[in-house]
Write a structure and sequence with these properties.
Blueprint: H1 14-22, H2 27-30, H3 34-38, E1 48-50, E2 55-57, H4 61-74, H5 80-96, H6 100-113, E3 125-130, E4 136-141, H7 145-158, H8 164-181, H9 189-195, H10 203-216, H11 225-239, H12 247-263, H13 277-281, H14 286-292, E5 296-299, E6 304-307, H15 308-311, H16 316-323, H17 325-330, E7 332-333, E8 337-338, H18 340-346, H19 352-364, E9 371-372, H20 383-392
Antiparallel strand pairs: 1-2, 3-4, 5-6, 6-9, 7-8
Helix pairs in contact: 4-5, 4-6, 7-8, 8-9, 10-11, 16-19
Length: about 400
């Protein structure tokens, strides 16, 4: 159970910030002082809805509204008889301060967005799995924008502890809920989309990625079975790049590389030594953009790629102010709105400075890149790292390859 019960125990203000973000609070609550919302240390006991524990202050209208939200979110955790007493005192306070209409509507909002977890279906949770004792465990419910954001932050922070198949499934659920609630997730969306497999790459980059794992086992005149199988997979990617553009095939490759990384401890070296499989396989490089989708617009110098349809909303005035009137005229129709076909022919030719300005205009307008070019699909592992990995390697023929169609 959480140690934050109400606004008086929310010492860092995190839950209050969440409440102000999630619920449609009236102005008299939004503009209230801390003393009006939380009270002071010497607040008499009878001015709490839970007088025994000094929780849920009811000394003012704003305090009563906020206490009502906290209480209704926590009610399932409170002993039923005590909950009835607290509810009655909150109702009397609401009548006294003439805020009953607000507390009733907010109570209904809590019920719709914060149902007791035991009543929720599995699809509401980011994480669902069977524990060692066979008991189903469910974590990170996603009933509103704030909870979706919390689930996305947890996934980003712990992704390297999860096998690719698991993090792909969780990322997909988070993105679906983000779409449902309109959560933009600007800091994490690209990473989540790659984890969910919502991207592509060229056959050449996929082959380079696979060969980094071959080299990780060290160089030898006679490659071992594992290296030989990886080389076969790399050659398939090179010779038949269209094959790996299919979602199922590409996720299969990502899963195989992820298992390899876990067997050899490479998943502890992501970012520093080697890239995650999804960062390359679903990174959509410049070459892949041309192979996969002609509706992607980007510049190789910045590595940011956008969907044409998203760029239709760019304000012409902002483009003119940042990139000049001539640029705006070249990419517009009647100087009134963006012509994405003209934009697609000009953006790839922009010098670095102008390309960065274009990205800034897009970001300011809420248009985020569909993908960012992977700069290190063929990232080199140092000789010492190769030695360390090779020393730790214990061959287990076949353990990775039941997923590969040979």
């Amino acid at each position: 159970m959480s140690t934050v019960h109400d606004q008086t125990t929310d010492l860092n203000g995190q839950q209050l910030h969440r409440i102000f973000s999630v619920y449609p609070l009236p102005d008299f609550v939004k503009n209230a002082s801390q003393a009006e919302v939380c009270g002071k240390g010497d607040l008499p006991t009878h001015l709490f809805a839970d007088a025994t524990r000094r929780r849920y202050p009811i000394h003012s209208g704003p305090a009563t509204v906020i206490s009502s939200i906290f209480f209704n979110e926590k009610r399932a955790e409170i002993q039923p008889q005590l909950a009835e007493t607290i509810a009655a005192r909150l109702e009397k306070a609401a009548e006294y301060f003439q805020v009953t209409g607000y507390t009733r509507r907010l109570r209904e909002k809590v019920a719709s967005t914060h149902s007791p977890e035991r009543d929720l279906t599995d699809d509401v949770f980011a994480i669902v799995f069977d524990g060692a004792d066979g008991t189903k465990e469910r974590h990170y419910p996603m009933r509103n924008i704030n909870e979706v954001k919390m689930a996305s932050v947890w996934l980003i922070d712990h992704r390297d502890q999860l096998p690719f198949d698991d993090r792909r499934q969780i990322a997909d659920k988070v993105l679906q809920k983000a779409a449902q609630f309109g959560a933009r997730l600007p800091e994490h969306r690209y990473a989540l989309e790659k984890m969910a497999g919502l991207g592509a790459c060229s056959g050449e980059d996929a082959a380079k990625l696979i060969r980094t794992r071959i080299f990780a086992l060290g160089h030898s005149h006679k490659p071992n079975t594992l290296q030989q199988e990886l080389e076969k997979l790399a050659r398939i990617c090179e010779k038949d790049p269209k094959r790996i553009q299919h979602f199922g095939e590409l996720t299969k490759v990502a899963s195989v590389i992820d298992m390899f990384d876990r067997q050899h401890g490479l998943h502890t070296k992501y970012d520093d030594v080697i890239e995650r499989p999804e960062d390359v396989l679903f990174g959509v490089t410049e070459k892949a953009a041309m192979e996969v989708d002609s509706n992607i617009v980007g510049n190789a110098l910045t590595g940011n790629y956008y969907k044409k349809a998203d760029l239709q909303t760019l304000p012409m005035r902002d483009l003119a102010d940042n990139l000049g009137e001539d640029f705006a005229a070249e990419v517009s129709t009647a100087n009134a709105w963006v012509d994405t076909e003209k934009l697609a022919s000009i953006v790839p030719t922009l010098p670095l400075g102008d390309a960065e300005l274009f990205d800034e205009v897009a970001a300011a307008s809420g248009v985020m890149p569909f993908a960012t070019k992977s700069a290190s699909a063929g990232k080199v592992i140092s000789a010492q790292e190769q030695v360390n990995i090779a020393e730790q390697h214990t061959p287990s023929p076949g353990s990775l390859w039941d997923r590969i169609e040979r």
